[in-house]
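Design job #97: recover the sequence.
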């Protein structure tokens, strides 16, 4: 039997609720596919500050390092807002990404037909959209040196440095090619090569790597053009790969195109470790009410099955069960629509689990 160790970091706010429901979905995967998951819980964020004084205790980091993958809820909340920046819950997240060298951030943006009206775009434009933005996460303007505000001739000057080494570009580009290879085999590389030397290097490396992936069609777009095309023809994109700064903006744009925050999963991957978490935060305004939408976290776990464990069939099953549940009209309050059947966190998960069972048997 295949066994996988999962580090479970529930975090704050709605984190414990949505992660709890996601573990039930994973237990159903164990039943249906004869695999075994070992869940081990660790502290992160505000709850870790309260218990240990540190948003990412050493113990949690060690737990992550001995696990096959990490499932995270969300961190943060008003209780910790007044702490100094380097002791805030969110610092725990930044540190885990850095300490585990999670250099590729994957943000899928898929339009679910039953939720098509949640998109700000016309249904005929957005229908069929199913893309992944692969954003480099550990380099670029956010980390380049020199940086700071300096004084020159009695005036302040703000400086950040856009910088990428060849190796940093190559590893994230390879990851994107690997993903594209398993999807619709189209890769859009986004840069600003008409103005920036860093982007020139980026483009050269994409071209070099494309020789190793002849089955993948490559398109290069300037970032300003890409931002426009994502709104004009979102369904034409498959995998988009880009640097940290451009990816920060484009991944949010992709998210808003498909609609609801409660539906957006993500993964942050390196060569050894991978962390899966919803895009949204800890939603303190609805924490403890039993109404949070668990689907973004469930879909993050589905990504874990696909990308970290190679369980593509189980991952597909979860996605189909989510779709079927939405088609049947079940909704949490954040995605409610006219005539829907409104339910809470646990009930919508019950429906998803029932649909997993049903769809699995339909298939056999
Ligand atoms: P948020 O994403 O937590 O919430 C924004 C709005 O969306 C809220 O009205 C919330 O109720 C709603 N929402 C979010 N997820 C939902 C879900 N699954 N189901 C139903 N409704 C949902 O963003 P925010 O309010 O700006 O931040 C709250 C806290 O979360 C802050 O402390 C912030 O720093 C933190 N945060 C954490 C992460 C993370 O852990 N990755 C990301 C963003 C924000």
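Job complete. Output follows.
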């Amino acid at each position: 039997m295949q066994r996988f160790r999962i580090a479970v970091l529930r975090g704050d706010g709605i984190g414990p609720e949505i992660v709890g429901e996601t573990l039930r979905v994973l237990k159903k995967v164990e039943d249906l596919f004869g695999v075994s998951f070992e869940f081990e819980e660790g502290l992160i964020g505000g709850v870790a500050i309260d218990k240990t004084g540190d948003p990412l205790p050493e113990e949690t980091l060690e737990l992550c390092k001995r696990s096959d993958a990490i499932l995270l809820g969300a961190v943060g909340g008003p209780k910790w807002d007044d702490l100094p920046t380097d002791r805030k819950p969110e610092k725990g997240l930044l540190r885990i990404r850095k300490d585990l060298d999670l250099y590729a951030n994957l943000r899928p943006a898929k339009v679910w037909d039953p939720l098509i009206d949640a998109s700000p775009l016309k249904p005929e434009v957005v229908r069929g959209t199913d893309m992944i933005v692969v954003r480099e996460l550990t380099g670029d303007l956010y980390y380049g040196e020199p940086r700071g505000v300096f004084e020159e001739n009695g005036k302040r000057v703000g400086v950040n440095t856009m910088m990428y080494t060849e190796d940093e570009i190559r590893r994230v580009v390879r990851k994107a090619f690997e993903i594209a290879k398993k999807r619709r085999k189209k890769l859009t590389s986004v840069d600003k090569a008409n103005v920036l030397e860093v982007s020139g290097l980026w483009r050269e490396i994409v071209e070099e790597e494309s020789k190793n992936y002849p089955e993948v069609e490559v398109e290069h777009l300037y970032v300003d053009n890409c931002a426009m095309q994502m709104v004009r023809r979102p369904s034409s994109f498959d995998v988009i790969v880009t640097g940290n700064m451009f990816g920060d903006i484009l991944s949010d744009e992709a998210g808003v195109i498909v609609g609801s925050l409660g539906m957006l999963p993500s993964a942050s991957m390196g060569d050894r470790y991978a962390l899966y978490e919803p895009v949204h935060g800890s939603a303190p305004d609805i924490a403890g009410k039993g109404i949070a939408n668990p689907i973004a976290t469930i879909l993050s776990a589905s990504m874990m099955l696909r990308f970290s464990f190679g369980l593509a069939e189980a991952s597909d099953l979860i996605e189909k069960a989510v779709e079927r549940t939405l088609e049947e009209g079940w909704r949490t309050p954040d995605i409610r629509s006219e005539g829907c059947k409104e339910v809470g966190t646990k009930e919508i998960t019950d429906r998803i689990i029932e649909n997993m069972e049903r769809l699995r048997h339909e298939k056999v």
